[in-house]
Design a protein that fits this description.
mainly alpha, about 130 residues, 6 helices
Length: about 130
Amino acid sequence: MRFWVPIWAHAKWIAALREHIYGGKELDRTLVDRTDRCELGRWLRGEGARFGHLPAFAEVVAAHEAVHRRAVTVVALADAGRRLEAEAETAAGGELRRRSRVLVRTLRRLNSQIVGTPEPVAAFSA
C-alpha cells in the first residue's frame, strides 16, 4: 500500500512540533500560524487544489487550519517553559492530538473521494 503524501506531510509537521517541545528543533510561532507554509498547506493550495470540488476538500482545509491554530498555542507553551502542558497537547487526550486525528480522518475521506474520480492522481508516492 502506498502512503499518501498529504498525510505523510502532516505526520512530519507534527513530529517537528514535538521536537520543538523537547528543544530539538526551533519553530517560529508566526510561521506555525501560517497554513500556507507547511508542506500540507502548499499541497492544498497547489496540486491538491484541483480537488477543491470534492466534498471533503473544504473539511480538510478547515481541519488543517484548526491544527495550526492549536499548534500556535503549543509552541507558545513550549517557548514559555511550560513543556508539560505542551506535551499534554500531543498526548492521547490532548487538544492538538484530537485536532490532528480529525485532520487525518478528513484527509482519508478526501483520499477516498479522489480515488473515486476518473482523473489520475499524482498525489501518491511510493
